[in-house]
Write a sequence for this structure.
């Protein structure tokens, strides 16, 4: 059995999307299809059920997925054990975080980690922080920097690195949104049915903001649903509406001088930001090594 084919299969078994897997694995769609066909021929079973819209694992595919995950984890551990007996820890560690987190929380941590383990190759993927936990659970990344959810799945471990308040922001630019904000200041109450609100597509900030409105019997006027807090700050700076984002995103934004923090929603609970990984991944010495470096820095 070809381990490369097994890795390709395992990734596809988690995304269930040929185009997405081929893009993230840097392989052509035809190359990915041939790898799956080789495995299906070797085991003489169908691993996926496919139609024009969906891809699903067969019962045999589920069995192979579990076997592949265990086998590749054991192989990684064996390689690391052998390398430790040689000249140091080596291998590839996959990380996911937002752009803001990459220089707010990750930069110093990776400096410390690379000073101790210079031969470890780091693969950094950036994107919407709301996707961080999903990517770790799906096995697309070994470790992520994420906001701690209200309920952490038992399969995950979380190491706090810091906190960031949630703040409501509006534009400084002279625009209709600015006028509505001024009217709210003058009257002592903002009109949320008139103010356009830029909402996150998914994630903890969205759920806390929705809860805030429900508790007050308010229904906001949603202007847009956006993926990524950084993009939300940019839209606010252009006068598109108001938004709720972590304060760290505002502080690090290149357009921070074009927005203001509004004196509302101070009661929103802050984000606890930290490292997140599947507990079973601690069998991987690379994951364990980064975790230990981060934990030592928090003491």
């Amino acid at each position: 059995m070809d381990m490369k084919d097994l890795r390709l299969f395992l990734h596809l078994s988690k995304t269930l999307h040929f185009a997405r897997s081929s893009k993230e694995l840097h392989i052509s769609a035809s190359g990915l299809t041939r790898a799956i066909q080789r495995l299906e021929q070797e085991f003489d079973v169908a691993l996926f059920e496919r139609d024009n819209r969906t891809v699903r694992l067969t019962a045999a595919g589920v069995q192979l997925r579990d076997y592949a995950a265990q086998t590749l984890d054991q192989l990684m551990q064996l390689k690391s054990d052998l390398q430790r007996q040689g000249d140091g820890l080596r291998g590839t560690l996959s990380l996911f975080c937002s752009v803001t987190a990459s220089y707010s929380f990750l930069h110093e941590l990776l400096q410390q980690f690379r000073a101790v383990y210079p031969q470890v190759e780091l693969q950094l993927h950036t994107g919407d922080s709301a996707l961080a936990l999903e990517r770790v659970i799906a096995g697309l990344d070994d470790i992520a920097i994420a906001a701690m959810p209200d309920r952490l799945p038992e399969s995950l471990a979380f190491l706090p690195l810091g906190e960031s308040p949630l703040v409501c922001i509006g534009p400084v630019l002279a625009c209709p949104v600015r006028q509505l904000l001024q009217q709210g200041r003058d009257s002592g109450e903002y009109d949320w049915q008139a103010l356009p609100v830029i909402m996150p597509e998914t994630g903890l900030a969205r759920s806390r903001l929705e809860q805030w409105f429900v508790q007050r019997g308010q229904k906001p006027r949603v202007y847009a649903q956006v993926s990524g807090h950084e993009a939300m700050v940019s839209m606010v700076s252009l006068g598109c509406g108001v938004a709720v984002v972590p304060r760290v995103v505002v502080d690090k934004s290149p357009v921070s001088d074009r927005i203001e923090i509004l004196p509302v929603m101070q009661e929103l609970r802050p984000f606890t930001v930290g490292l997140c990984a599947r507990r079973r991944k601690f069998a991987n010495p690379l994951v364990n090594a980064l975790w230990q470096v981060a934990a030592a820095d928090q003491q």
Notes: Residues 59-84 form the longest helix (26 residues).
